[in-house]
Amino acid sequence: MKKIIFFLLVFVLVSCGENADNKKNKFEYKKIEKKGINSDKKSKEAVIIINSSDLMKFDQNELRVFEGQEITLTLNHTGKMSKEIMGHNFVLLKKETDLNDFAQRAMLARENEYIPDGDETIVYTKLIGGGESDTITFSAPEKGSYTYICTFPGHYGLMKGVLIVS
Ligand SMILES: [Cu+2]
Predict the structure, then answer these.
(1) In the chain, what is the greatest distance between 2 CA atoms, to the nearest angstrom?
(2) Would you give the DSSP letter of residue 85?
(3) Rounded to the nearest 10 degrees, how much is the dihedral formed by the CA atoms of 113, 118, 122, 124?
(4) Euclidean distance between the first and final Cα of the chain, in Å?
(5) What confidence tens digit (pLDDT) does each residue in 2-53 have?
(6) Contacts with 120 (C-beta within 8 Å, 6 or more apart), sequence order
(7) 28 C-alpha vs ligand 1 centroid, how far in Å?
(8) Rounded distance, CA 155 to CA 6, Å?
(9) Which residues are found with C-beta within 5 Å of the ion, ligand 1?
(10) At 31, phi and psi to the nearest 5?
(11) How many angstroms is it from 50 CA to the middle of ligand 1?
């Protein structure tokens, strides 16, 4: 009987230990998730890291920065597929841009990494494939909301977000 009680006690202790570990992991995960989204108003610089993958998604669909900040933005492609098949870019558009019209023209601009002629873009990264990344720097535009997309054919429906400048 003593043995059984001893085993029960060990079991309870182990279970508690596991719970504590889970809670810790969850907390750390949230911290990582928020990293890079919000920048400090006093800071002159904002660092943004966006991950994309073979799943045709950006891991962030809302970015917040402040007017005049110097933004360093890195786009990572954590997948394995080549840029010919699952290429991604980050293309920030001016406010008045007709998204569908722009994306349609982008689809045809294969020789220019799917950036069409015109002046609708504020800034954009290179087109990258699995395992690659690209970093760009630019000044936050005037206050407002700006759409960003991946212009690889068929991607902008899912790969779309908004940069909010306060
Ligand atoms: Cu893409």
Answers:
(1) 82
(2) H
(3) 0
(4) 67
(5) 554 444 444 444 444 444 444 443 433 333 344 444 567 778 999 999 999 9
(6) 93, 94, 97, 102
(7) 28
(8) 58
(9) 88, 150, 152, 155, 159
(10) -60, -45
(11) 12
